């Protein structure tokens, strides 16, 4: 390599141009729009930080972030815990005593909802939960009666959470199983010789060994939970009475239904800030625990 | 790998207590299988109702076994939404994004990982940021831009947007893979008089082909499953994708339950087939992404 490094810049050119046009300029424009009042037609009117002060006093905005917390429970906390138990069971018990084929078949079953377009999953569940859908048919058959699961503000959010758990479970299972294969079996043997039981081994060896994967799962799923849109659109459109509104649906609604482009842009910017802050926090935490 | 399994099973035989062959293992298996069945229930119910006649459905409800095996729901759905056209749209959009996204990621990562251009840490961080930004924070300006450029409601607009969004992740992943590319191979290529362009295609690409194919498959399936930006950008029958076709019929009260189920079935079939074909690559890919 005698020609130095300058020539490599050419290879970044297409990426730089495309990135500028599709990400940087639109993002900058969005920032600008968030400081204006605009219906999408005519010229945006500069209003400074008014959209942001309005946001802070908007109950729906706070509801949307509370619902995001529910999404984090449904898409990160619960699937990671269940995934941990399932993958350890598949690896330790099923894989060893019933063969790796059985284990990988079951793993594929858990992963199946992950490959569907998430909005298709949403529509499928929307039908199952409809007043005349399959869930109520079961309810009637066992004498529980009917319920409008997605139409009742009390049950809508728990139902959306249930659907998201169903969608998400396969992801941690697949990653944790791969992680478990990486762990040195000698560690377990040594612990066993020392008389450590299954749970003790799980606690002292498995959990610390798969920490990097746990970080990756919690980070990527948290970002996904903060961004969630498709299932909300398909299941409830944010309703009833904002019970399932999330920030991304809130922004979409402001942009394209209410024609409050500036306000929508402010919501989107606030969401971006939260995502970036959460990611940086995660990466900092990861850096600290690893060093 | 084989020797490892051999020694382990020998240990197991020497010490039968190690894998207690008791009844407990069957209980565990039953519990896991039960969980797996619970995951499958929605698919089973959908499958059962996709093949019913509307009269059978309204007469006997969603849980009854179909009285007769009907293909009418599937036919109605296929024709009503021009499903063949949606399938073509999805394939064209996802296929183009997969190929273009991988090429763009590769060019970026070549400069960053092998070229080690100055400030590469910042550039990688910038691409990572682009991957994190919610699409909501880009969508309105992109929508206005597409309108003023005459690209609104065109597949091209979606292809361009997703090529860039996917390549943000691809750049991040490939740059770290190429950062550890064997120096000896590059030096050998230089000694043979290969320029950068030749080195990229003759030396680098063949070496990292497995990673590239994982990326290709992921970009394809991610783009296929995308909803938000296509919902905004693609508004009519001639441009919409498979997930949009199903979603846009959802509010339609005229759709009977059997057609909805048939529609859901046809819409998820391509992804399931794709998953079955590429299962191993996909699982490998999820892991590659996780371990970096």
TrEMBL record, chain A:
Chain segments annotated as transmembrane: 7-28, 69-93, 105-128, 156-180, 215-235, 261-283
CDD domains: TM_PBP2 (cd06261)
GO biological process, one term: transmembrane transport
Every ABC transmembrane type-1 domain range: 65-284
Membrane topology: Multi-pass membrane protein
Pfam family, one: BPD_transp_1
Subcellular location: Cell membrane
Keywords: Cell membrane, Membrane, Transmembrane, Transmembrane helix, Transport
Location (main, coarse): membrane
GO cellular component, one term: plasma membrane
Family: Belongs to the binding-protein-dependent transport system permease family.
Official protein name in the record: Raffinose/stachyose/melibiose transport system permease protein
Species this protein is from: Kribbella voronezhensis
TrEMBL record, chain B:
GO biological process: transmembrane transport
Membrane spanning residue stretches: 23-48, 87-110, 122-143, 155-179, 200-224, 262-278
Record has Transmembrane helix as a keyword: yes
Topology in membrane: Multi-pass membrane protein
Any one cellular-component term (Gene Ontology): plasma membrane
Keyword Cell membrane: yes
Keyword field: Cell membrane, Membrane, Transmembrane, Transmembrane helix, Transport
Domain (ABC transmembrane type-1): residue spans on this chain: 87-278
Compartment(s) where it occurs, according to its Swiss-Prot or TrEMBL record: Cell membrane
Protein family membership: Belongs to the binding-protein-dependent transport system permease family.
Name used for this protein in its record: Raffinose/stachyose/melibiose transport system permease protein
Organism: Kribbella voronezhensis
């Amino acid at each position: 390599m005698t020609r130095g490094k300058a020539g490599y810049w050419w290879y970044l050119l297409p990426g730089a141009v495309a990135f500028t046009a599709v990400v940087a300029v639109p993002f900058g424009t969005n920032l600008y729009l968030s400081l204006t009042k605009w219906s999408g037609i005519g010229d945006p009117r500069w209003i400074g930080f008014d959209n942001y002060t309005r946001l802070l006093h908007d109950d729906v905005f706070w509801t949307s972030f509370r619902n995001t917390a529910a999404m984090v429970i449904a898409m990160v906390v619960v699937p990671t815990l269940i995934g941990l138990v399932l993958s350890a069971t598949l690896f330790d018990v099923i894989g060893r005593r019933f063969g790796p084929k059985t284990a990988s078949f079951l793993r594929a079953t858990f992963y199946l909802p992950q490959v569907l377009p998430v909005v298709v999953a949403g529509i499928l569940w929307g039908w199952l939960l409809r007043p005349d859908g399959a869930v109520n048919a079961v309810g009637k058959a066992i004498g529980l009666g009917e319920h409008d699961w997605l139409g009742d503000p009390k049950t809508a959010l728990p139902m959306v959470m249930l659907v998201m758990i169903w969608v998400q479970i396969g992801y941690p299972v697949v990653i944790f199983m791969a992680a478990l294969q990486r762990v040195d079996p000698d560690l377990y043997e040594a612990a066993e010789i020392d008389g450590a039981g299954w749970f003790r081994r799980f606690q002292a060896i498995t959990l610390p060994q798969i920490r990097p994967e746990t970080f990756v799962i919690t980070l990527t799923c948290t970002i996904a939970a903060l961004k969630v849109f498709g299932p909300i659109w398909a299941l409830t459109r944010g309703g009833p009475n904002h019970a399932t509104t999330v920030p991304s649906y809130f922004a979409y609604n402001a942009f394209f239904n209410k024609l409050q482009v500036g306000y929508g842009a402010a919501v989107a910017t606030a969401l971006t800030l939260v995502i970036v802050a959460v990611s940086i926090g995660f990466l900092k935490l990861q850096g600290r625990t690893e060093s | 790998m084989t020797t490892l399994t051999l020694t382990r099973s020998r240990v197991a035989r020497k010490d039968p207590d190690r894998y207690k062959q008791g009844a407990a293992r069957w209980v565990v298996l039953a519990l896991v299988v039960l969980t797996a069945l619970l995951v499958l229930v929605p698919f089973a119910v959908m499958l059962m109702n996709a093949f019913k006649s509307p009269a059978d459905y309204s007469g006997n409800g969603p849980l009854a076994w179909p009285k007769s095996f009907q293909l009418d729901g599937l036919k109605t759905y296929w024709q009503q939404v021009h499903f063949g056209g949606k399938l073509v749209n999805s394939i064209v959009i996802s296929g183009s994004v997969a190929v273009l996204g991988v090429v763009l990621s590769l060019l970026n990562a070549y400069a960053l990982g092998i070229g080690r251009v100055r400030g590469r840490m910042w550039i990688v961080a910038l691409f990572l940021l682009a991957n994190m930004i919610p699409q909501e924070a880009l969508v309105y300006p992109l929508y206005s831009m597409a309108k003023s450029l005459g690209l609104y409601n065109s597949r091209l607009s979606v292809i361009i947007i997703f090529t860039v969004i996917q390549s943000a992740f691809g750049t991040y992943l490939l740059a770290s893979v190429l950062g550890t590319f064997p120096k000896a191979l590059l030096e050998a290529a230089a000694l043979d008089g290969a320029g950068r362009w030749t080195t990229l295609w003759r030396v680098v690409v063949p070496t990292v082909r497995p990673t590239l194919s994982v990326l290709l498959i992921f970009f394809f399936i991610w783009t296929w499953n995308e909803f938000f930006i296509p919902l905004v950008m693609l508004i009519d029958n001639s441009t919409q994708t498979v997930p949009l076709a199903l979603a846009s019929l959802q509010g339609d009260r005229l759709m009977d339950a059997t057609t909805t189920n048939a529609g859901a079935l046809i819409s998820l079939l391509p992804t399931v087939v794709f998953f079955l074909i590429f299962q191993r690559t996909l699982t490998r890919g999820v892991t590659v992404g996780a371990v970096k």
